[in-house]
Amino acid sequence: MKVLVSPMNLEEALESLKGGADIIDVKNPAEGSLGANFPWVIRSVKGLVEEHGKLLSATVGDLDFKPGTASLAALGAAVAGADYIKVGLYGVRSSEQVYEMMEKVVKAVKDYNPSAYVVAAAYADHSRVGSVSPLAIAEPASNAGCDGIMVDTAIKDGKNLFEFMTREDLEKFIDSARDGGMFCALAGTLSWEHIDILKDLRPDIIGVRTMVCESGRNSKIKSELVSKLMQAVR
């Protein structure tokens, strides 16, 4: 189980690397759950990540169903150096729309960098925002050529992944990814009390920010907390 930590700048990326994070995921919390950061920030973090022999992830936003916009944003992240490109399916309402949007994203990214990983991200609290269920995205994402699927929470109000999806739901989500030949990632205001169940569920990746910040999601990532997490999951 790899640990993905989501810094919003170079300073936080360095803290994440010092703590031993497996994947550095550049995002912009001010623009939402999967808010996109600026290309120059992604590029600057890329150089640092490469020095440490790690891979770089980047979010491209909580997106409406606009395949053209999504594919252009994803290409921008790939050009800036992201190894993983995460697309938030915020305004996507159906499996058909998942396929239509992600097929275009995959084409845009893979034409530029065939080795980049494309990740379709749904939301555990999808009913609160009217988006597609995480349990409905694996087949269309796989058919579109995605490398992985992810679940997060759309609204960051302190509610976590496990308040919206049962253990059975999460097992189905993980199995659906692997049945489709993809990896899976779990995120969504995860906390220290979730470590044991996450280790039992054994997703390929867990994504965190809040639990490794000194005092909440909008404060700073601390290397000591990242290190503590790495020790806990190992």
From TrEMBL:
Annotated active site: K27, K86
- At the top level, the lineage of the source is Archaea
Q: Which NCBIfam families does UniProt cross-reference here?
A: PRK02227.1-3
Q: What is its EC number?
A: 4.2.3.153
Task: Provide the protein name.
Answer: (5-formylfuran-3-yl)methyl phosphate synthase
Q: Which residues form a coiled coil?
A: none
Q: Which GO terms describe its biological process?
A: methanofuran biosynthetic process
